[in-house]
Amino acid sequence: MVGLTSLLTKNPPMLPKLNRRRAMFVLTKIDEILAWEERKEVERDTRWVELGRYLCEVRAGQYWRLEKLKCFDEFLERRFPESRRKAYYLMSIHEHLPAQARRELKEVGWTKGVELAKLARRDRERFDCATWLHKARQMPKEDFKQAVEKELTGQETEAWEIIYFKLYRSQSPVVEQAIETAALMLGSDKSRGYCLEMICADFLAGANLDNGNPETLLFSMMRFFKFLPGDQRQAFLENLK
C-alpha cells in the first residue's frame, strides 16, 4: 500500500486554464468530422488523422469540461459509443507518427497508420519513415500488418481473418463470461480469439468422447497439446507411456 498512498497529495496539480473559445472550436470540429463520416466516403482517412489531432488537444486542454463532463473517457463515450479504441488509435497516430507520415496517410489509410505508429513508438528518432511508408503503399492491409508484427516480435505470424456473427444482448453475458473464465485459466496474456478456440476445442473433445468422430477428437486434442508449455508436453507424453 506504500506505493499507492504515496501518490496522494493535499495539493493536487492546478487544472489548465480553460480557453472557452478554442475549446468550443475544437469540440465543434470533432462533431463535424463524426457527422461527416456518416455522409461521405471520399477523403475519409485524411479527416480521421485530423480528428486524432483534435482529440489529443481535447485531452491536453481538458476541453471536455465545457460540456460539464467528469473526464476525457466520458467525453469519448459520448462521441464513440460503440468503442473508444478507434479514438485512441487515431490519437496514437498523431502522437507518434512524424508529420511527413501523417501527411501521406491519405495514400495508405488510417488502419495502416495504426501499424506505422507502433513502429514509430518503438523506434522513435530511428524510425525509417520512408521505407515503411513505401511498404504501406505497396502491400495489402493484412500483409502489411503481418510485416509490422514480424518486425516488432521477430517472429512470423500466422495468417488470420476476422469472423463476424450476431449475438443477442441476452447471449452476450454468457459468451463474455466464458471467454473471461478461459483467460483466467489459460493466462491473461492470451488473446480472446485464442480463448475462444480453446473453449470450442474443449466442446468438440467432450462431444466426441462417446461414439463420436475420432478424427474430430484427435484434432481437438492436438490443438490442446500444441499450446502446452514444454515441460507439460513432456509430462503428458510420459504419462501416455
List the main descriptive attributes of the protein structure presented here.
mainly alpha, 68% helix, disordered N terminus, 241 residues, single chain, 2 domains
Q: What do these coordinates show?
A:
By secondary structure, this protein is mainly alpha-helical. The protein has two domains: 17-153, no CATH class; 172-227, no CATH class. 68% of the residues lie in helices and 0% in strands. The chain has helices spanning 2-5, 20-39, 44-61, 72-79, 85-96, 99-103, 105-108, 110-123, 129-138, 141-153, 172-186, 192-207, 214-226, 230-240. Helix 8 (110-123) packs parallel to helix 10 (141-153). The radius of gyration is 24 Å and the shape is globular.
Structural shape: globular
Please provide the ordered H/E string of secondary-structure elements. HHHHHHHHHHHHHH
Q: How many discrete domains? A: 2
* Largest sheet geometry: none
Number of helices: 14
The gyration radius over C-alpha positions equals 24 Å
Residues in helix, % = 55-70%
* Measured distance between first and last alpha carbons: 50 Å
Mean of residue pLDDT values: 79
DSSP summary, beta strand count: 0
Strand content: under 5%
Oligomer: single chain
Structural class of the helices, strands and pairings?
mainly alpha
Low-confidence stretches: 1-9
